[in-house]
Automatic annotation (TrEMBL):
This is 33 kDa inner dynein arm light chain, axonemal. Belongs to the inner dynein arm light chain family. One of its GO terms (molecular function) is dynein heavy chain binding. InterPro entries: Axonemal_dynein_light_chain. It holds the Pfam family Ax_dynein_light. The keyword Nucleotide-binding does not apply. It comes from the Eukaryota. GO terms for cellular component: axoneme; ciliary base; dynein complex. Residues 180-250 form a coiled coil. The keyword Coiled coil applies. Keywords: Coiled coil, Dynein, Motor protein. Residues 1-65 are annotated as: Disordered.
Length: 260
């Protein structure tokens, strides 16, 4: 694990934490804190204070309570370097007006260095402003712990709201992707169905044309047959008429001599 990156939140100098591995049980391992400089150009911790604490008991208890609140709001950072565990707690030093001015300058400088976007969604800008808000909470908590805890509630509510919007955005994107894939699949199925219907239409048109040709051939053949039948019928009628006329003439020739 590499040392943490620089942050807008003010931290104390890191402290080397070594584990006592002489104990056999893991629960019996004691943490031994030594304030010594790390090797290879590591961060240099503050020297141990000379003499005992000169604060009154009430002030010392209040300071200890403030440190506990600060550690609960902004947990200490930990990292390993050359097999050694380093811990860096948030600073409990009260902030001055100059510290606030420097914080604003550092915020503007980091926004420019990391090329954060001025508008729209930008994770870099969000991270830097979150660090700036944490630093303001630290400064306020040192002066008034209750006010700092209230700001902590505001910070957590903002983070929860942003997380809810992020979840909603991700779910909406996933929903949109599913709908787009469904629409694409539906389009493919519809195009396939259109091709099948067009092929069926062409088959039906071909059948209609074949049936029309058959109907025309049948009508033509039936017209010719009807014409032949009518002609034959007409000739038969004429033949019967002539035969009838001849029979009438013969009958009249037979009946006339008998009358005379």
């Amino acid at each position: 694990m590499i040392p943490p990156n620089s942050s807008l939140v003010k931290y104390d100098n890191p402290v080397l934490v070594s584990r006592n591995t002489e104990k056999k049980t893991p629960r019996a391992r004691a943490l031994k804190t030594t304030q010594q400089a790390p090797t290879n150009g590591g961060p240099v911790p503050n020297p141990p204070p000379k003499g005992g604490s000169k604060l009154p008991p009430m002030e010392q208890q209040k300071a200890q309570q403030t440190d506990e609140i600060l550690n609960s709001i902004l947990p200490p950072r930990e990292w390993t370097e050359n097999g050694q565990l380093w811990v860096q707690q948030v600073s409990s030093t009260p902030a001055t007006r100059l510290d606030v001015v420097n914080l604003q300058e550092q915020l503007d400088m980091k926004l420019q260095q990391r090329q954060a976007r001025e508008t729209g969604i930008c994770p870099v800008r969000r991270e830097l402003y979150s660090q700036c808000f944490d630093e303001l909470i630290r400064q306020v908590t040192i002066e008034c712990a209750e006010r700092g805890l209230l700001l902590l509630r505001v910070r957590d509510e903002i983070r929860m709201t942003i997380a809810a919007y992020q979840t909603l955005y991700e779910s909406s994107v996933a929903f949109g992707m599913r709908k787009a894939l469904q629409a694409e699949q539906g389009k493919f199925d519809m195009e396939k169905k259109i091709d099948e219907l067009e092929g069926e239409k062409r088959d039906l048109e071909r059948q209609v044309n074949e049936l029309k040709a058959k109907c025309e051939a049948i009508e033509k053949r039936e017209a010719e047959r009807r014409s032949v039948e009518e002609k034959k019928h007409t000739e038969e009628i004429q033949f019967l008429k002539r035969t009838n006329q001849q029979l009438k003439t013969q009958l009249e020739g037979i009946i006339a001599p008998k009358k005379s």
